[in-house]
Amino acid sequence: MVKVSRAEFEQLVWEAVDTLPSALRDRIANLEIEVKLKPSPADLADADEDDPNELFGLYRGVPLTERGTHYDMTLPDLITIFQRPHELACNSLEELRAEVRRTVLHELAHHFGISDDRLDELDAY
Q: Which of 21, 40, 81, 96 has the lowest CB atom count within 10 Å?
């Protein structure tokens, strides 16, 4: 297990966002990213997950691929990255940095309309 401060963890999250090519970063629309220490019961229910230590991130919103012409005046999509599950799963700062990046990219993929099944397929390569 590796522990970092909330500020250090948030920095890892924003570093991961900053690694995106500008062409992708520029396409992000109406999205907020937040960090929470651990998932709430509502987060677990939304993710259909029982174990709070297994939920690293959560996307809530309408993916870009599903937004139609009537998509306006809508609250931002929300990506939540959970600090404690990451810390429990990692044994070094470098491992933590890599896992945070993987989670951020995974949740951003949902914002771009990529499903979990497709991400699993891509991860198999």
A: 21
User: Is 1 within a domain?
Assistant: no
Number of folded domains that form the chain: 1
pLDDT of 122 reads 64
**How far apart are alpha carbons 8 and 91 in whole angstroms?**
16
Residue 97's domain comprises 6-123
Instruction: Average pLDDT across each block of 10 residues of the chain; the chain has 125 residues. List them in order.
Output: 98 95 89 98 97 97 88 90 98 97 94 82 62
Is residue 108 included in any domain, yes or no?
Answer: yes
101, 11 in Cβ contact below 8 A? no
CATH number for the domain spanning 117: value is: 3.30.2010.20
Q: CB within 8 A of 12, min separation 6: which ones? A: 4, 96, 97, 100, 101
Q: How far is CA 31 from CA 49, 64, 68, 72, in A?
A: 23, 10, 16, 13
Q: What's the one-letter identity of residue 25?
A: R
User: Which one-letter DSSP state was computed for residue 3?
Assistant: -
